[in-house]
Amino acid sequence: MNVTITPSSVAGTARAPPSKSYTHRAILAAGYADGATVRDALWSADTQATARAVGLFGGDVDRRDDDTLAVTGFGGRPDVPADVIDCANSGTTMRLVTAAAALADGTSVLTGDESLRSRPQGPLLEALSDLEATAYSSRGNGQAPLIVTGPLAGGEVSIPGDVSSQYITALLMAGAVTDEGISIDLETELKSAPYVDVTLEVLDDFGVDARETEAGFAVEGGQSYAPAGGEYAVPGDFSSISYPLAAGVIAGDESEGVRIEGAHPSAQGDSAIVDIVERMGAQVDWNREQGTIDVSGAPLSGIEVSVEDTPDLLPTIATLGAVADGDTRIVDAEHVRYKETDRVSAMAEELGRMGVETTEKRDSLTIHGSDSRLEGAAVSGRDDHRIIMALSLAGLVADGETTVEGADHVDVSFPGFFGMLEELGVGLERQE
User: Fold this and answer.
1) Domain holding 322: CATH number?
2) Binding-site sequence positions for 3-phosphoshikimate
3) Distance between CA 364 and CA 313 in Å, rounded?
4) pLDDT digits 0-9 by tens, 267-307
5) For the chain, how many structural domains are there in total?
6) Which residues bind 3-phosphoshikimate (predicted)?
7) Of the listed 40, 270, 312, 411, which one is catalytic?
8) Domain limit, last residue, from 206, 233, 260
């Protein structure tokens, strides 16, 4: 599907979708348990991949209504899957499930789509092998398809922290149900650290004790997953909140503006987007108790932003920089190249089609807002939900219509994204 965006002002109320990061962890945590009800869950292409994996491990995920999942767990010991685990486009699924597969007393095979099969898994495979599982890439390049044979023993392991925080999450979640537990020593500085904070929060809510140590992280073995009252509620997603927030900043009606609901504080690092738009000059009122954010259109100025801990915000920040005065410099960004696509190059190239001047380096992206004039164009979403949404925002204030190709991939994290834009007053046309 392609979507054509007409320049528009926005006003009204948008509700944040549930957090994708929390939903992944909650579904798998409920799988590790005897079972649980996961409320306010995001049912997207990515989280469905995790749900399918739980089913292949001997559990079951039953979607009872739009946002409630009844999960039957596999009690800490997954069955050997009867089929290949297809993680589709979900990197989170592949990494979390790879460690879970290492608990099974037998062999699991994991794969995904072309994009996922290009993403690095080597450090996690090496860590699992060091913990007495057998884990390797079928092509010998550290990328899927992956072959994993358990059972995982537990123990002490070292792993780099600057490739993906999901490796640490995967090991902590699996380590809780091993006999020995797992102690993780970080070989390098941890990138995307708030995502591990999310993991520790979810583990705690499921009754599992894991902690940060001087060397890294550790989780005791022999634990059981069990949320209080058998239920867990997923908070709103700040990665997704960044899009209506940015829309309100760059195209908001000055008198009415945009209100975002479901923005309750949590461990999510991407809540930094609120501070980022304020630093750029936006007027933002975040009522943390009520979980609402009010924002309206404002002139923006370029700033420097580190995305070391918030890689998913880079596309949104790049679009904000395209309409800001001066330069917006996004730094500590090398790990953002290893997402669904190389998001650094993707935003530079696609914004370039729209008349935006950028300077791309290995670890940074600078957007020269004062030297740019946003013009409508046909741009590629690169089969990446975050690129699609960020380019759609640019279309709100471009001169002329903007067509985003392959826009249906928003289903990965924000299935209602274009419907939300329409409710805020955006003129758009879908072409199947």
Assistant:
1) 3.65.10.10
2) 20-21, 25, 164-166, 192, 312, 339
3) 13
4) 999 999 999 999 999 999 999 999 999 999 999 999 999 99
5) 2
6) 20-21, 25, 164-166, 192, 312, 339
7) 312
8) 233
